[in-house]
Amino acid sequence: MNKLHHVLLAAALASSAFGATAQTMKPGLWEISNKMTSSSGEMEKAMGEAQKQLAGMSPSDRKMMEDMMAKQGVGMGKGAGTTAMKICMTKEMAERNEVATQQGDCKHTNSPRAGNTMKFSFVCAKPPSSGEGQVTFVSPEAYAMKMTLNTTANGKPEKMNMDATGKFMSTDCGNIKPISMPKK
User: Fold this and answer.
1) Residue 117 belongs to what domain range?
2) Which listed residue, 98, 99, 128, 140, has the most CB atoms within 10 A of its CB?
3) Are the C-beta atoms of residues 40 and 153 closer than 8 Å to each other?
4) Is the dihedral of CA 161, 108, 140, 33 positive or negative?
5) How many separate domains does the chain show?
């Protein structure tokens, strides 16, 4: 269970470690699907193991774990290294042209948006990590992102690559609470 918690924390951090300027994004509930790969392959192994552990739980324990993750807006994806998250972006966040971050103490830098594309970089203190990426805004209700994350896993440098898509779900965030804004 502890391994599952660490894997989900890393996935949540990676999937939301950017503060994207998004002039046309709709406020409300968004689902972010992520596919991550690591240079060592350890993250994929840990994700696969976490998915096996979840599948091997009794139905009541699995439901309890899935409910706990769902309250945080996190779910397991369909393959190793995949997650799905839900975040709530308020009208004020959309008006400030920023996407919220989920985890970590991070500082973000965004390049000016060129057409429907914007580049970004970040440095996080907790957990220590850095990275860069690019967001392509498909519409006010969808985007695609590619990102590279540099961190440390088990005392060794680790590079992770992530492909993500964001999809607008609803104007009502339900029980998903808005999350904190990134530091500039």
Assistant:
1) 2-170
2) 99
3) yes
4) positive
5) 1
Look at residues 164, 65, 55, 172 and name the one whose alpha carbon lies nearest to residue 120.
164
Residues in the chain: 184
- Inside any domain, residue 107: yes
Task: Give backbone dihedrals phi and psi of 105, rounded to 5 degrees, phi first.
Answer: -105, 95
CB atoms within 10 A of CB 18: 26
Residue 28 lies in a domain: yes
Confirm if 79 and 163 have CB atoms less than 8 A apart.
no
User: Angle, to 10 degrees, between the axis of helix 59-71 and the axis of helix 42-56?
Assistant: 130
Gap between the Cα atoms of 59 and 63, Å rounded: 6
H or E segment to which residue 35 belongs: strand 28-38
Say how far apart CA 180 and CA 182 lie, in whole Å. Answer: 7
pTM: predicted TM-score of the whole model, two decimal places: 0.69
Cβ–Cβ under 8 Å, residues 144 and 136: yes
CA 55 to chain centre: 22
